[in-house]
Design a protein that fits this description.
Elements lengths: L4 E6 L3 H11 L7 E7 L10 E4 L2 E4 L10 H10 L8 H6 L19 E5 L2 E5 L2 E4 L6 H24 L7 H26 L8 H7 L5 H12 L16 E5 L3 H15 L2 E4 L2 E8 L2 E8 L5 E5 L2 E4 L3 H9 L6 H9 L2 E11 L23 E4 L8 E4 H4 L11 E9 L10 H14 L9 E14 L8 H9 L4 E3 L11 H17 L5 H4 L12
Parallel strand pairs: 1-2, 1-13, 2-9, 6-15, 13-19
Antiparallel strand pairs: 3-4, 5-8, 6-7, 10-11, 11-12, 14-17, 14-18, 15-16, 16-17
Pfam family, one: Amino_oxidase
Protein name: FAD-dependent oxidoreductase
GO molecular function: flavin adenine dinucleotide binding; oxidoreductase activity; UDP-galactopyranose mutase activity
């Protein structure tokens, strides 16, 4: 006989693996029998690193920064901060604080780099600082007339407030109608496939609440002051320093998965959860299916789920049926899917006009991301992997490895393109944007498709509270992570939901309010 509690964790992404480690660390194997079920054969979910011909892609770009000190410490314990200069630090003579006794990235792989964040907006063939800043470049790119129109439009929005019953009004109240139409309207529709007037203001409350014109002005003036501010004092999207694993975010999650297995966690890959079984108002077991269609039942005392809520409810419905209205809400929850096209190119047409030194011959632009706010292009964002970590690129001095991010619906015409068609489309857009000269510049490519990358805030989302109440009714089921909660969580938020859930299991706390309230408190917000 054993007094161990058995815990099944659905999903090997940030939330699932965080939960597994929180249960098993510090001798937890004596108290908990932990099993992780992962549908794929990779770890990290959308925070994984994709490897292709010696180059590595970060799906969506993951800055390792959090206002939650628990998370920062967690990351640093998994991959210690660099104690010596990285390849690009050395080559560019770049200096920043090193961690005393930390590993040397040139000699060791398990290391977290310290990075400087640069992002800009591409609009009307001009580059603007991201977020928009008070600079000569901004005023020059907009021109005097447009600057005046935007300024008066903003002043009007300060006096005449619109009811914040949709995302469009939310943006106009903070930036004015002119800046909204330039930088938010088209990009938001590109990202979500819906006009902002059709999207709940909840999304804005979660993602952009702390940022406004006044926020940008305050930050611009504060940067001129001699006193250096801590990251805790700066809105998250204005953070200019962050951490980054040497080989991308997937390296961290592969390390966590390895640590979990070493400590006694059972990890099963290729295990898709197809049925959730219930008994006496509690979850009793899950049924998984492998690639050959073989089914396995896994019983447990506690269940932590990071699988999409829609799939979770339908899996309950596959056994003893979930109530019809809950199935209706779950099936109406919308998602936005994601395609990224990686292109290895000889060089970029873009010149580095900043004062930030960069690698490459000629030197490349210093951006981590370039936001394509221009509605004339389908691509939403460009990533330049060379600037995230030089170790993501096989030949970092002589090639540029970039990722073009596209938002779409699973099964639509863009999603269904062949690799060749998607690559040709991406090359044509980059050429038209004058980022590259043409197809002859491209040396290699890779297309990656990601389902349910972005939980969306429309359709039946307004009834999400009903679904939360139903799922919380199973006392031994905890929903965590971005898709597990149908909330546009960042990686640190997803991890925090898992930490809260494990805390409840350990303490016997029955209310799950703390698990669902992560990323609703102002201090958690990602400000855009």
């Amino acid at each position: 006989m054993t007094d161990k509690q058995s815990v099944v964790i659905i999903g090997g992404g940030p939330a699932g693996l965080t939960a597994a480690w929180e249960l098993i660390k510090d001798g937890g194997a004596e108290k908990y029998d932990v099993t992780v079920l992962e549908e794929t054969h990779e770890f990290g979910g959308i925070s994984r690193t994709v490897k292709h011909n010696g180059n590595r892609m970060d799906i969506g770009g993951h800055r390792f920064f959090s206002k939650d000190d628990r998370i920062m410490d967690w990351w640093k314990e998994t991959l210690p901060l660099q104690g010596a200069p990285s390849y690009d630090d050395k080559k560019l003579g770049r200096e920043h604080d090193m961690e005393p006794g930390g590993p040397d990235p040139e000699k060791e792989d398990k290391v977290m780099l310290k990075r400087h964040r640069v992002s800009r907006i591409y609009w009307n063939r001009h580059f603007f600082d991201y977020p928009i800043s008070l600079s000569a470049n901004t005023l020059k790119a907009m021109g005097f007339k447009l600057t005046m129109v935007a300024g008066f439009s903003y002043l009007k929005s300060m006096i005449h407030k619109l009811p914040e019953d949709n995302l469009e009004n939310f943006y106009i109240n903070r930036f004015g109608r002119k800046l909204y139409s330039m930088f938010f309207e088209g990009y938001t529709e590109k990202l979500w496939g819906r006009h902002p007037s059709q999207i709940s203001a909840d999304w804005g409350s979660q993602r952009v609440k702390g940022l406004s014109i006044m926020g940008v002005l305050k930050n611009a003036f504060a940067k001129l002051m001699p006193k250096k501010r801590s990251n805790a004092e700066v809105e998250t999207s204005l953070i200019e320093e962050f951490w980054y694993p040497k080989y991308g975010p997937g390296q961290l999650w592969e390390t966590v998965e390895h640590n979990c297995e070493q400590a006694g966690v059972k990890v099963v890959t290729g295990a898709k959860v197809v049925e959730i079984r219930q008994e006496s108002g509690r979850i009793s077991a899950v049924v998984t299916e492998d690639a050959e269609g073989n089914r396995t039942e896994v019983a447990a005392d506690q269940f932590i789920s990071s699988m999409p809520v829609k799939d979770l409810v339908n899996a309950i419905d596959a056994g003893e049926k979930a109530p019809g209205d809950m199935v209706e809400v779950a099936n109406g929850l919308p998602y936005r899917d994601f395609v990224t096209v990686g292109l290895l190119v000889k060089h970029l047409r873009l010149k580095n006009t900043t004062d930030i030194p960069t690698l490459g011959n000629p030197p490349i632009v210093p951006d981590c991301w370039i936001y394509v706010q221009d509605p004339g292009y389908k691509v939403g964002r460009l990533q330049i992997f060379n600037n995230w970590s030089p170790y993501l690129v096989k030949d970092v001095d002589d090639t540029v490895w970039i990722g073009l991010e596209y938002f779409c619906e699973e099964g639509d015409s863009f999603w269904n393109m062949t690799d060749e068609e998607a690559t040709k489309f991406a090359i044509a857009e980059l050429t038209r944007m004058r980022v590259i000269n043409g197809p002859a510049d491209v040396l290699d490519s890779h297309r990656e498709r990601v389902k349910k990358a972005y939980p969306a805030y429309f359709d039946t989302y307004s009834r999400m509270d009903e679904l939360v109440e139903y799922l919380d009714g199973f006392g031994n089921l905890y929903c965590v992570g971005r898709n597990g909660q149908h909330r546009y969580n960042n990686m640190d938020h997803s991890m925090a939901t898992a930490i809260e859930a494990v805390g409840n299991i350990k303490s016997g706390k029955t209310s799950k309010k703390n698990v669902w309230s992560v990323n609703t408190d102002k201090s958690y917000h990602e400000q855009k």
